[in-house]
Amino acid sequence: MPASVEGHHRSGRTVKNVLMLSYHFYPFNHIATQRVAKMAKFLPKYGWNPLIVCPRWTRENCEFFDPNMVSAFEDSNVVGAIEYRCCLSGGLIRRMLSKCSVTMDPRILAVSALRYFARSLEKYPPELYYGVIRFLRRFLQTHHVDCIWATAPGPMAHAVAHWANRTFGIPWVADFRDIYDQKGLPEYERAKSYLRKIEPRIVSSSSAIVTVSEHLKKILQARYDSPVCIIPNGFDPSDYQESNAFIRQDWKVFSIAYTGKIIFPLRDPSPLFEALEVLISRRQIDSSKIRVCFYGTQADGTVEALLSRFPNLNGIVEVRARIPLAESVKIQKGACILLHLAHGGEKGIMTGKIFEYLGARRPILCIPGDHDCVDALLTQTNAGAICHNTEETAAQLLRWYKEWQNTGSVSYQGREEEIMKYSRQEQARQLARLLDESIVDPKEPK
Asked: Are the C-beta atoms of 286 and 312 separated by less than 8 Å?
């Protein structure tokens, strides 16, 4: 157990402890990992000692295991790394059937199964939920925790925090990176109607709620009595300062980079492809001088399927595998332009990727805009251009391409003072203040 945990008993405490519950953490290479890890990095500056409880991710149980993150895990204040086999296929159905008699009235069987299904979803994944509970029963007997911060989506962290509040009276803050109402959460598609029914009972015990955008805040405010505040995703400047990745030789071509997954059709690169097709056919750009690279989209085949409609883009657009975070930073800093695919038909979606792009300090091409929070962010920071259709995209690309032809680069016009409002340290400061408020006047356990 890390030495920083010791000495924080109920008597003689000198700092405040926050228990951080998350499904994602190092060495899981996921954008959600960064939200937890960076909050934990900077919270001590504001009087809070993070105590992290998360799964123990390995090559065997993590699809996106990043060996480069193992040292970051070891250096973090993880007090409980829960063993997790992640082998759930068929387990839920078997457990449901084992609870029901085969001679039972079918109506009773159906109701019982639905109730059991809902309870199981509340504790999903059950192997991890009960592992965390077993750990905390011991840990909280000997270590004082002033407040809990539990982050979602996925019900496990919130359900554990609700249990700890009821069992030990610890106030907690519910963090929503996403909510079940929004589109593009395929892993919860079949279950999210159940989860929406379960969620109010769990979250009602929280002292406060955090989310990432104004639209999501309004939805949660209408749903719950707890105060709701916005702490968006962000970037850690040190990740970019440590990278010697500003590779000017990459600018021998006009390069456009996209790092992340594509949730089609919510994130649709077709307007970019259409714009490039137009510019090439008009001979306004030289096809040998432009490259578009998608990193992290290789597995789903979406980009390849779309490209079949654009024969002029053969050899221009490349689709590559998912890459480690450090490599992603290098790619972002070395690109002329960074592509962001906004959810054009959905409000409130502030992905972590747009903030990574802010950290890279390269111009952002946002397609098609969202007439909401992403458009507002880019307008506030002046970090890029919002193009709502093929014509606007083609015109903006041609402007940047001509600048690159004339100067060998594309200038960055971002407003530094506005960009730094989205640093991870600033967000940790906001979270620390919220944690302070939660322990001054916490809700009574329900």
From this structure: no
Decide: helix, strand or coil at residue 131. helix
Contacts of 438 (CB under 8 A, 6+ apart): 147, 171, 172, 173, 207, 208
Residue 197 forms part of a structural domain = yes
Q: What is the mean pLDDT of residues 1-6?
A: 43
Nearest-CA neighbor of 334 among 284, 300, 293? 293
In a domain, 94, yes or no: no
Q: Is residue 97 part of a domain?
A: no
What is the structure's pLDDT at 8?
41
Strands of the sheet with 317-320, listed across from one edge: 317-320, 290-295, 254-259, 337-341, 364-367, 384-386
* pLDDT band of 10, cuts 50, 70, 90: very low
Q: Which residues contact 296 (CB under 8 A, 6 or more apart)?
A: 259, 260, 261, 320, 321, 322, 323
Name the strands in the sheet holding 48-55, side by side, starting at the edge strand that comes first in the sequence.
78-82, 48-55, 16-21, 147-152, 172-176, 208-211, 228-230
Between the alpha carbon of residue 229 and those of residues 175, 213, 353, the distances in Å are 10, 9, 21
Cβ pair 145, 120 in contact under 8 A: no
The verdict on residue 107 lying in a domain is no
Top mean-pLDDT range of 102-111, 340-349, 425-434: 425-434
Any idea which residue has 């690279």 for tokens? 293
Which of 184-193, 212-221, 313-322 has the least mean pLDDT? 184-193
